[in-house]
Amino acid sequence: MLLSRDEAEVRLAYRIHWASALDLPVPPEGMLYQAHAAIRPGEFDTALLRVQSGEQGEPFLRFAEQQDYWINYLRETHAGRFDALEHLYRTDLTRLTDEFEQRNISLDNPEYEKRIREFEASFKAQQTMLIRELTNAEGLEHH
């Protein structure tokens, strides 16, 4: 007799079984209808491998760098790294502004605006690199 699977019970079974290994939020105490999940032999292990492999590589990094909650977590946890990057960016902008003012070139000058855009693009690229670096480091800590 083949039992039909209750998908809610399957999700709950996975959540309880892998709560520790995947650092999931606090799992429920248990399941009343575990039989309805109809978990097959080896299914938990296969699922864990899929999750862990999905947490590596370019697609995951692109996903992570777009998640506000993740970026906020990294900014709180590694505030010094982000502060140092921002300080460098602001110092470079101040230096650029001073350079143009000393040369009596208007800050409305297209060259100044071009350089500002270049600084902004560089700063965003450096932030992305930092987010990726920290995301990889966090992943290594949990495996």
TrEMBL record:
Domain NEL: start-end pairs: 1-143
Secreted found in the keyword field: yes
CC per GO annotation: extracellular region
InterPro entries: NEL_dom
Pfam family, one: NEL
GO biological process: protein ubiquitination
Record-stated family: Belongs to the LRR-containing bacterial E3 ligase family.
Name this polypeptide is given: Leucine-rich repeat-containing protein
